[in-house]
Design goal:
This protein is an alpha/beta fold. The protein is 38% helix and 14% strand. The protein has one domain (6-155): Rossmann fold (3-Layer(aba) Sandwich). It is built from five helices and four strands, in the order E-H-E-H-E-H-E-H-H.
Length: 161
């Protein structure tokens, strides 16, 4: 029996930097165990150049990345998500759509590297955010996900934040 990947939606307000990094890292580090998407409550319409630069420097594909609205994923045609993770404080405090399937939710808040004006500091901030997401994803991958009930899974997901 083939195990379906866990569906993950990473939310941020602008969907240009943090959520994009998390989407790519989930899909890459998860190696088929996760199918991640990112979206924003008020997407800016473009991926931040600093996020693209960091991803490209580390060998990640960026061609298909785009800033998109969470409305794309809040329709009956979209398969339910297993996990909803907010990565910015604004998105965590907003009224989100009702997600079918009662996904486990967590807040993995990170400072916004796109908000930093100095290019050297901004590059270091993108590195820090990506490393933090990678560490959390690796810890999630170490859990026996298929053996955890929904409540335990929810608790572990939140604990990683």
């Amino acid at each position: 029996m083939e195990i379906q990947p866990y569906r993950v939606l990473i939310l941020c307000t602008g969907n240009s930097a943090r959520s994009i990094l998390a989407e790519v890292l989930f899909n890459t580090l998860g190696q088929g165990r996760f199918l991640a998407h990112s979206a924003g409550s008020r997407p800016v319409g473009r991926v931040h150049p600093g996020a693209l630069e960091w991803l490209q420097q580390h060998g990640y594909a960026t061609d298909a990345l785009r800033s998109k609205s969470w409305d794309e994923f809040a329709t009956p045609e979209v398969a339910p998500f297993d996990f909803i993770i907010t990565v910015c404080d604004n998105a965590a405090n907003e009224a989100c759509p009702v997600w079918p399937g009662h996904p486990a939710t967590a807040h993995w808040g990170m400072p916004d590297p796109a908000a930093i004006a100095d290019p050297t500091e901004r590059q270091a901030a993108f590195k820090h955010v990506a490393e933090q997401f990678a560490q959390r994803i690796h810890l999630l991958l170490e859990l026996p996900l298929v053996k955890l009930d929904k409540l335990a899974l929810h608790s572990h997901l939140r604990g990683l934040g």
